[in-house]
Amino acid sequence: MTQNTEQNVRTRDEQIGDIANDWIATGMGRNIAYEWASEVVHEAEARGAEEQRRKDAEGQVPIAWLIEDPLKGRPGCAHLIDRASTNRAYAENMETLNFDVSPLYTHPANVAALVARVKELVAENEKFRNAMSAIATHVGGFASPNCSVDFMTSAIPEEVRLSFTTLTREGGV
User: Fold this and answer.
1) Distance between alpha carbon 132 and the CA centroid of its chain, in Å?
2) What is the pTM of this model?
3) CA dist 54 to 75, 105, 116, Å?
4) CA-CA distance, 99 to 29, in Å (whole number)?
5) In terms of Cα–Cα distance, which of 31, 37, 43 is closest to 18?
6) C-alpha to C-alpha distance for 47 and 41, rounded to whole angstroms
7) Which of 91, 87, 93 lies closest to 102, judged by CA?
8) Which residues have a Cβ under 8 Å from the Cβ of 141 and sit 6 or more positions away?
9) CA angle 27, 33, 36 (to 5 degrees)
10) How would you write the pLDDT of the chain (173 residues) with one tens digit per residue?
11) CA separation for the pair 151, 148 (Å, rounded)
């Protein structure tokens, strides 16, 4: 099993530059084009983060709510410190008073996908260990003076070598 490790995604700065250059080509001023492009990318990132939070929350019940004062971060404004509450009614009441209320969960909903991936990697690891064991058996052990690393590597099927590379890259071995 192999994975695509190439970066097929532009960086944030590249995206802003491309958008701004398109607007500049239509006659918009350089500074305003970059400012607007930066705002567009920032909004897109915020939408993506909100979508991920929504996906993470699917099928879960909040264990608490983070309550933040809407005046936080405004220069010259006094504000209350952030706090968490496990009382849903209190959190809903604070929300009606224009406080920012965010639900807190024990774990993201995609844990099932992560568990499935770990099982895949464990199976790949087992294939690799079996191949190494077979090599050790056929060449008289890893410490055999007649056994070179090149021989051992060439004896491992390519599928298993690629799996080991994946496991190593993902921290599984």
Assistant:
1) 32
2) 0.37
3) 31, 11, 21
4) 39
5) 37
6) 10
7) 91
8) 147
9) 140
10) 445 556 578 888 999 999 999 999 999 899 999 999 999 999 998 888 888 777 776 767 788 888 888 777 777 777 677 888 888 898 898 889 888 888 887 766 566 667 777 888 888 877 777 777 666 666 555 545 555 555 656 666 666 666 655 655 555 44
11) 5
- Gap between the Cα atoms of 49 and 39, Å rounded: 15
Q: Find tokens 């019940």 and name the residue.
A: 61
User: Residue 101 and residue 70: Cα distance in Å, rounded?
Assistant: 10
The closest of 152, 148, 150 to 136, measured between CA atoms, is 152
Is residue 147 a contact partner of residue 139, using CB atoms and an 8 Å limit? yes
